[in-house]
Amino acid sequence: MRKFVRILGLSIMPVFAMAAESAPLASNHYFQEFDNQFSIGFGGTYGSLANAYGQSSNYGTTFIGLSVERLFDIGIWGRIDASLMTGYSNYNSTNANATTGPLGQDPGVAGLNFKLGYAFLPIQEHLLVTPYILLGRNTNLTSNSLNNNTSPAGGGTSQLNSNVTQDYFWTMGFGGRVEYRINKIFELYADQGFLYNSDQSQPSSSYTPANNYQLVSTIGAKFNVWENLQLGLQGFYSYNQLSGAVTSAQQYQLYQQNQLGGLASVGLTY
Is residue 187 situated within a structural domain? Predict the structure, then answer.
């Protein structure tokens, strides 16, 4: 009996060893090599402003970006993006309203956005398609918001000691992402988002909230250059449209119209 058990054990052990060695990888593991990452980047934007009188101006910003991304074995995909503006400049403007107050006219001083989706594999190893939903909180800190929320009813000078913690947007929407894996080193991707920014800044009775629709188009690339080191490069374009008409008191104020930007990043995969 002991001899039989010994023989049976010796015969089963190779089977378990083979099973361990041939355990199947997740079907999307080729894309996990790119998407399971966290990174820090530095970028810039160039945008345009316009008001109800047809006056316009341009601006530029620099910013720092942080991201954490994960593609799970079961296909769920998530990404968190945070940003902080580090510089703002006005360009070729003859409109005094472009520089009113201590702030610029780009509301995105800081933001935090979360995307959650499910990834599909139309072409194994090479093509990943991910529809997603987005929820975020992004600042609405501009000369407009500071002036509108703190001025007396008849208009007046901004109060620089005001509490501006309520000056933000709730951002919500949906989008789609396509990733094309060339090989184990290079991946290209495109992302299209359809968003709505709900103004929480509670402007005075003379002004309407700056609620707006936003389209964001992004193209980029990821490079797994060495072991867990990943470099990234992306360009993006956004278009904003106010969802309602402005009042006569704010027709002179400039609002964001469109923005073109880019970001270079370095990070680690895990």
Answer: yes
**Is pLDDT larger for residue 34 or for residue 53?**
34
Q: What is the CATH number of the domain that holds 108?
A: 2.40.160
In a domain, 5, yes or no: no
**3-state SS string for the chain:** CHHHHHHHHHHHHHHHHHHHHCCCCCCCHHHHHHHCEEEEEEEEEEEEEECCCCCEEEEEEEEEEEEEEEECCCCEEEEEEEEEEEEEEEECCCCHHHHCCCCCCCCCCEEEEEEEEECEEEECCCEEEEEEEEEEEEECCCHHHHHHHHCCCCCCCCCCCCCCCCCEEEEEEEEEEEEEECCCCEEEEEEEEEEEEEECCCCCCCCCCCCEEEEEEEEEEEEEEECCEEEEEEEEEEEEEECCCCCHHHCCCCEEEEEEEEEEEEEEEC
In whole angstroms, give the CA distance from residue 258 to residue 113.
19
Contact residues for 12 (Cβ-Cβ < 8 A; gap 6+): none
Is residue 221 classed exposed, middle or buried when 0-12, 13-18 and 19+ CB atoms within 10 A define those classes?
A: middle
Domain range for 171: 38-269
- Domain-located, residue 158: yes
pTM: 0.83
Is 192 inside a domain boundary?
A: yes
Query: What's the rounded mean pLDDT across residues 71-86?
Result: 97
Q: How confident is the model at residue 12 (pLDDT cuts 50, 70, 90)?
A: very low
Query: Residue 250: what pLDDT?
Result: 77
| pLDDT > 90 fraction of the chain, expressed in percent and rounded | 59
